[in-house]
Amino acid sequence: MPEDSMTIIDNRTGVSYTLPVKNGAIRAMDLRQIKTSPEDFGLIAYDPAFMNTASCESRITFIDGDKGILQYRGYPIDQLAEHCTYLETAWLVLNGELPTESQLEDWTCEIASHAAVPDDIPRILQGFRRDAHPMSVLASLVAALSSDYPEAKNVHDPAVRRLQIVRLLAQVPTLAAYAYRHSLGLPIVPPDPSLSYTENFLSMLWKKDEPNYQANPVLARALDVLFVLHADHEQNCSTNAMRAIGSSFADPYMTMAGAIAALSGPLHGGANEEVLKMLDEIGSSDHIPAYIRKVKSGECKLMGFGHRVYKNYDPRAGIIKRIAEQVFAVTGRNPKLDIAIALEKIALEDEYFVKRKLYPNVDFYSGIIYQAMGFQPEIFTVLFAIGRNAGWLAQWQELLADPAQKIARPRQVFLGSARREFVPLDQRGAAGAAAV
Ligand code: CMC
């Protein structure tokens, strides 16, 4: 019997099967040989929400959720957050190694030179309502780039792929800033290639009449670190969307529009906006016990808490908490931080949260910092998207280079009606099915 294998006995038939085990996984397709009869389709695995199913082999991000470890390409997140810029991290995530000095210089110039968006984008932007959510505007504008760059369809050409990666990294902040300014009724500010990635983003957001926008260096660095912390997070909901859509060979703009849509949901990236709403609703530390009671009775969730993978403190939340102090030294303390800290303390001691291993996640503190920096809550998830851009693109690239991948197409366990004869309309009687 090979050592790296397991034996399964099918109690329905008494037959035993030996399945290879590689990298701690069996291949789900190896289950297909397990049949009760020659006509049987074969065994499949039922795993709603992919609780225990790996959809790919990846070399980008490692997470140990029990130990609270996060590494990009082997480098611990706290070291990257301390020493790297976002563009340096994006290079690492995309290429597997840290850039040399000259590579980083060329990369920074290349991204800056692609930050201007095509001419039709400002016209499309004008078509959106002022109160449109910036995430829906961002998803639509990213999809619109597909019509500007039709060559992007050629996803199998590495040079074409690389150019679209550069364009997306360069232009998503521009689109995000345009979406935000539109929501505030302000004219757009074109990118300034003489500024760093994050300073340029802040300039496009907040420049008024001054000839040169000067971002506060502490705030610019804090935002850049937040982008680093969000750069990748292995197979989360939006990355899974990126891979699933990319597996049909859709172009990267259409593919990323889908990932942005997935990120917008309140259980995923949209949680940072929800945390602020929740802290507003709680209002003061005295109201925390009553709110915790509501959460425990199932009336609502404690937003910014819990994670599918982390069953320990999310390492990003700890780093964000430290950045908050640097930001508040410039902006003044956001009073919501005190409510959040008190909420965290009570939750971490409460049996409900302890038993379920619910800890603060990346979204718990990020919104408080963004608000102190002057961002409206509607743009919080857009900021998440700018950071995650690097990871989505790296995962898309890895998918396309992986010979084991095919179009994503899960199976289902069918529990609906067996075959039945059609009933003509006039013979269906009064009682129909409940409307969908
Ligand atoms: N507040 C209260 N109870 C919770 C929470 C929460 N935030 N999260 C999970 N639980 C409970 C859940 O009700 C369940 O209880 P029970 O066993 O009694 O049914 C138990 O904990 C296990 O939760 P689950 O829903 O099975 O966990 P999941 O892995 O499916 O969901 C999650 C993960 C992040 C969607 C969930 O924890 C959640 O909804 N959190 C709030 C939203 C949030 O902060 N999302 C941001 C995630 S981190 C950034 C990102 O990736 O976007």
Question: Could you describe the 3D structure shown?
Answer:
With 436 residues, the chain is mainly alpha-helical. The chain has a single domain, classed as Citrate Synthase, domain 1. Helix content is 49%, strand content 5%. It has 17 helices and five strands. It has helices at residues 77-83, 86-95, 101-113, 120-126, 134-148, 158-183, 197-206, 217-230, 237-246, 252-263, 271-282, 288-296, 315-331, 336-349, 351-355, 362-373, 380-401, and strands spanning 5-10, 15-20, 61-64, 69-72, 75-76. The chain has a three-stranded antiparallel beta sheet. Strands 1-2 form a two-stranded antiparallel ribbon. Strand 4 and strand 5 (75-76) form a beta hairpin. Helix 4 packs antiparallel against helix 5 (134-148) and helix 6 (158-183) packs parallel to helix 7 (197-206). The site of carboxymethyl coenzyme *A has 19 residues, from helix 16. Carboxymethyl coenzyme *A binds next to helix 16.
Structure keywords:
mainly alpha; 17 helices; Citrate Synthase, domain 1; 436 residues; 49% helix; 3-stranded antiparallel beta sheet; binds carboxymethyl coenzyme *A
Distance between the termini: 53 Å
Uncertain segments: none
What is the architecture at the second tier of CATH? Orthogonal Bundle
Major sheet: 3 strands, antiparallel
How many domains in all?
1
What is Rg? 24 Å
Strand order of the largest sheet: 3-4-5
Number of helices: 17
Tell me roughly what share of residues is in helical segments.
40-55%
Q: Which ligands does the model contain, each kind named once?
A: carboxymethyl coenzyme *A
- Coarse structural class: mainly alpha
**Under CATH, the topology is which?**
Citrate Synthase, domain 1
Q: Strand content of the residues, in percent?
A: 5-15%
What would the average pLDDT be, to the nearest integer? 95
Beta strands, count: 5
CATH classification class = Mainly Alpha
Shape: globular
Order of helices and strands: EEEEEHHHHHHHHHHHHHHHHH
- Give the name of the CATH superfamily: Citrate Synthase, domain 1
